[in-house]
Amino acid sequence: MSSTVDRSEILPLTPEIERATAERYARVAHVIPAVEWTLAAPYIVEIDRLKCERNAVILAHHYQSPAIYHGIADYVGDSLGLALEAAKTDADVIVMCGVHFMAETAKLVNPEKIVLSPDLEAGCSLAESITGRDVRLLRERYPNTPVVSYVNTSAEVKAESDICCTSANAVRVVESLGVSRVLFLPDKYLADYVASQTKVEIIAWHGACEVHERFTPDQIREFREENPGSVVLAHPECPPDVLAEADYVGSTSGMITWIGKQRPSRVILVTECSMSANIAGAHPNVEFLRPCILCPHMQRITLPKVRTALERLAPEVVVPAEIAVRARRSVERMLDLEKVPT
User: Fold this and answer.
1) How far, in Å, are 124, 134, 260 from residue 257 at the CA level?
2) Which of 49, 135, 159, 305 shows its CA 20 to 30 Å from the CA of 290?
3) Among 76-90, 236-250, 318-332, which stretch is predicted with the lowest mean pLDDT?
């Protein structure tokens, strides 16, 4: 059974709930099995009610489970998209269905709002691969070298950085600084990809995403052989030899845009596999083949936990003021860059 619903507390499905969610389910019936929707629907109705009571907005990453993504999210996106939505929402409460650094980022751009993370243990191998002290030591070793931090970092690390980036805008951020060399952290594979796209020298930290680093070129070649005519799309957090096997390399949002424009008949998405199920809802004529690796941290967010968070207004994400002021500056510099036409 999906991790979307915990069997420890199953709410009853009533005819009223079935009617209230029927239209929503009809749009995603080819993605979410009926038995799973039966378990999810009562939570979806409860969460809808609590959202109204709390004046809350739910932001969900593309790697969330389909029932969360299609059932309760007000906005879905990649790290950059969610940061942009968080910055402009007028809701009193933000529920981040994603990992902890995403909730911290939402708090940084909304210091006066309540930001909830349904599970504070939903972490990230990249964010945990580097500390603020590590960044300070890097600055000592490479004086006068700007620090570009992937948003997949803690607020403490963002506070020690000059500007943030996402996989969608990393090259643009690096080149916007107008320097010949930058420190780029923490993802070594994204750093390799950025280095291949720019003349700026990239000094990389050696962190990696525990999902994307597990893909191998042999795996991709095997998928191609078994599924002739497939188009391979890969995320730049994958190792370089995996990216070399891909037909397109891009961020989560970049892959979605590419599929929408090119409309291939058969796609292999080399990224966290919840994304395939989620975007399949908008592309029923595309066959998604999944070399599937789930992010265990993303899967910690469940419908029961979202309901509980809205009921209790907890767990609340708090960033210490002395860190928040500096971290907010690096995030806002990235967001300001997004307002400048390319």
Assistant:
1) 25, 36, 5
2) 305
3) 76-90
State percent of the chain over pLDDT 90: 87
Mean pLDDT (the chain) is: 94
- Relative orientation angle of helices 321-338 and 79-88, to the nearest 10 degrees: 100
Name which of 275, 281, 278, 279 is nearest 294 in CA terms.
275
Q: Is residue 1 predicted with pLDDT exceeding 50?
A: no
Residue 249's beta-bridge partner residues? 234
Cβ neighbours around 44 below 10 Å, total = 24
pTM of the predicted protein model: 0.93
pLDDT digits (tens, 9 = 90+) for 22-44: 999 998 888 889 999 999 999 99
C-alpha pair distances (Å), 28 with each of 2, 33, 278, 281: 15, 9, 9, 6
Q: Residues near 167 by Cβ (< 8 Å), separated by ≥ 6? A: 78, 79, 150, 190, 235, 236, 237, 250, 251, 252, 254
Q: CA-CA distance, 117 to 99, in Å (whole number)?
A: 8
CB 108 within 8 A of CB 166: no
Give burial (CB, 10 Å; 0-12/13-18/19+) of 141.
Answer: exposed
User: In sequence order, which residues have a C-beta less than 8 Å from that of residue 261 and are 6 or more positions away?
Assistant: none
Omega before 186 within 30 of 0, i.e. cis: yes
